[in-house]
Amino acid sequence: MRLLKVFYFFVFVLIMACSVAQKREQSEPNEPSEPSEQGEQYGHVIFCGYDSGINDPNLDRYSYYKIYINKIEAGRTTIGLESQKKTFEKKMPVNTHLLSVEKWTLNEKSGEYEKLNNVRQPKPSYSYFEVKRNSSTFINMEVINGEAVFTSMFK
User: Fold this and answer.
1) Most exposed of 49, 58, 102, 105 (fewest Cβ within 10 Å)?
2) Can you give the pTM of this predicted structure?
3) Position 36 in a domain
4) Which of 113, 99, 90, 114 has its CA nearest to residue 68?
5) What is the pLDDT of residues 58-103, one digit of tens each?
6) Which domain covers residue 96, as residue numbers?
7) What is the mean pLDDT of the chain?
8) Residue 52, C-beta contacts closer than 8 angstroms, at least 6 positions apart
9) DSSP labels for 67-86?
10) What was the pLDDT predicted at 55?
């Protein structure tokens, strides 16, 4: 009989925990799916960065880009060889935004990623882009001999 009471108590606690978790999911979405009460609209941003002109596989290091939007760290790209395309995606409010990029490479001796010093960072390391309502903004950054070429388009 006592074992049965303990079982019912744990079932009750489990049901309450699931109920609280479900209410949190409904009340605190991670990203807005619709315009907010203030009338703010959103679009989707997709960044792709890579180096071209690497002819020797021994010089092709693992890297990623740290992404800053409006001078606030927004995340980072996927990891890949410098010659491979690395991507980052985010939902953003409609407006013109400042994108800044930092390149990080793998130090094979220590096994840790290190930020390239400022001299070796792609130049320019920033670009302005526009986010339009209910559309996707694609930003492509191709680095050629240390010079970054940004292109963007809407879809």
Assistant:
1) 58
2) 0.72
3) no
4) 99
5) 999 999 999 999 999 999 999 999 999 999 999 999 999 999 999 9
6) 42-154
7) 84
8) 83, 142, 143, 144
9) EEETTEEEEE---EETTS-E
10) 87
